[in-house]
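Narrative summary of target 7.
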Amino acid sequence: MAGHTPNIKDGFELGVMREAGRITHLSMMEAAKAVRPGISTGELDDIARALMVKMGATPTFIGYPPGAKYPFQHTCCISLNEEIVHGIPSKKRILKEGDIVSIDIGATYKGYVGDCAITVPVGRISAKAQKLIDATRESLDAAMAVMKPGGLVSTIGRTVQGYAEERGFSVVRNYCGHGVGRELHEAPQVPNYYDPKLISGDVVLKPGLVLAVEPMLCEGTYDTQILNDHWTVVTKDRKLSAHWENTIAITKDGCEILTRP
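Modeled conformation, tokenized:
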């Protein structure tokens, strides 16, 4: 997480971030529209990258984090079923009917980052899987509804957790949202749950603060495990997980979703 003090963006920076967010969203949706049984996660990654580059942006995730022993090498993190985040795309990973697939993507445009994610069905899925996808998306909508000047980052997590648990789902603790701007990960961290112990480090929402808010909900336990590829995070009980994310700017009147045209 870059720095400890939230970086407030000015009007020019927000203008660039709107375009970064638009490109990120459109690239993600181009891949999401291609989801079907028989396509590989590697092909989905290629589809997203082609549109992103055509629109003048570069994939934020490639080579991230700098200096790491095992840096990420793809445009998208593509995670299936029990995979929560950071799934590695592969031409050998073929989608099948009944899967759910999360596409997480970052685009850098003129030095600023957009970051968003979506979970979509592959063909016909179970009613419980659809309920999980819907609850994850709706928990993000609920969080955005409370994001306004004078509010607190902790309220975001409290809202996501409350919405999820009322519907019988758990919220991942080991991974969270974050500030975003010139860096993919900036201060502050944005947990998707509420913990009174974190209140001492709470952050007041101010106009110009830009956050990537990303609920990750699970069908069973929120405990996680990292696979041997050093990236893919799965649920410890191997039950389903879903992930939604938007890059959101706090405004004087409320908030603006930058990753939604």
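The chain has a mean pLDDT of 96.
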